[in-house]
Amino acid sequence: MSVFLYCFREREKLLDVNDLVAGSRLTPSYSAWAASVQDVPDTFVPHVRKFLEEFPTALREYQIS
User: Residue 33 half-sphere exposure, CB side, CA atoms within 13 Å?
Assistant: First the structure.
């Protein structure tokens, strides 16, 4: 059960990225029929890179737990 709860930390980070793109965390309104409503903000790429740098460490924590 504890590993499941630890995963919420990374889930929150991904929801923050979704919030940057879609304007909300749980009810995104980013995509439209065959297009996107807006461009991603300038802060999108740094947020994703930071997540990708931190995720392998978190994944190792889950495997040890």
Answer: 0
Exposure letters 14-34 (e unless 16+ CB within 10 A, then b): ebebbebbbeeeeeeeeeeee
If you average pLDDT over residues 7-14, what whole number do you get? 88
Q: How far apart are CA 53 and CA 49, in angstroms?
A: 6
**DSSP class of residue 31?**
E
User: Which run of H or of E encompasses 34?
Assistant: none
With 0.85 as the threshold, say if the pTM is over it. Answer: no
Adjacent-strand bridge partners of 35:
32
